[in-house]
Amino acid sequence: MSLNMIDIITKKRDGGKLTNEEIQFFVNGYTDESIPDYQASALLMAIFLKHMDEEETLQLTQAMRDSGDVVDLSRVSGIKVDKHSTGGIGDKITLVAGPLAAACGVPIAKMSGRGLGFTGGTIDKLESIPGFQTTLEPDDFFKQVDELGIAIIGQSGHIAPADKKIYALRDVTATVGNLSLISSSIMSKKLAAGSDAIVLDVKCGKGAFMENEDDAAKLAETMCKIGNSAGKRTIAVLTDMNQPLGHAVGNSIEVIEAIECLKGTGPDDVLTLSLYLAGLMVYLGGKAESLEEGEKLAKEALDSGTALSVFRRLITSQEGNPRVVDDYSLMPRPAHQADLILNKEVLSGSKFVCGEADVADTSKVYYIAEIDNQRVGIASQHTGAGRAVKDEPIDPSAGIIVHKKIGDAVKMGDVLATFYGNDEAKVANALQEAMHIYTLSEAPVEAPLLIKRTIE
N or C end: fewer C-beta atoms under 10 angstroms in the chain? Predict the structure, then answer.
């Protein structure tokens, strides 16, 4: 019996379960453009409203995976481990956890994307290193992973092309926030990337796609089931995104902060999460008997300087200037900067969870209770560090250093954040966007728990 989209749309609209053949028909037809946008939109809305079960979600993921190239990493010896983050403000963890895991003997064949939104993606960050090349021929890619233990390149346009088309349509048809559609979008690309095991960093909070922890846990569980059902050992970690990771939000400044972490002197939260995720990667890569042992080995690679050496060699192997590791002045430098200072205007316009502002008392101590993390991201984009539309150029020197975070004590005159960029007007605009990102308290405040739980 021949398949047609009207029957498939009707079936899902009425709450029916789609067969593997029906899902394949839709994915293949929309990818080759034999199915028009209006029919694809109708099916996506039916899925959004009536949902998919686990079997349908897995079949959709596999169909999107098979819509393009599926990378064969069998030429690389060892258990290859991939790491993916659902995205957050100041998330430079791959630049730290990748070298840590590679230094422990786990092959990291990483294909990353560019950023759309708050800041650049991992590829944009690496391209802020002078000369760094994010495109390698397949033979060179495999050889580098075998010899060095790590390579990080841009994701091919031939990886899961169905996802690219379907995501663009979801974005303009109000069908983004569906568990099956989100998880299949992420996992189709991860499965196509060819690694044997996957570590997922699922963010939750005000700067994450999933603000609610329970929703983030459901997403993590669904993605773990997809990965494990596809024969990829998959573990997810729920992590906090109610404030930036580290202090740097941008591209070159995040690379610098990542290098500081590999030197053992970076922000505690970035180091803690990087070591935890690297420990999981070492464990899944068969180099440790437990997560605890994996984390211990990662810490040894950090303390010995081996992981920093791996990162330096990664830069050299991909034609970047390795001297940036020791001389940050070689990184892109901004022409302008502006400070967000706790003054009368900022204080009087801030929200309070306990007590109230006293602009007359310049010695009074307040505590950071909350940060509007999404607004931090928007302000970073306004500096030029991110993209509003695909392929928009970014300013690698632009971004924000967030000096004060949740739990920190502040008083009048303190610098809360510094904004950087080559466009003075953009820097000023970003500063205005961030005038009231802080919520203050008269009573001390504890920082949120960074690592919430691990899901297998």
Answer: N
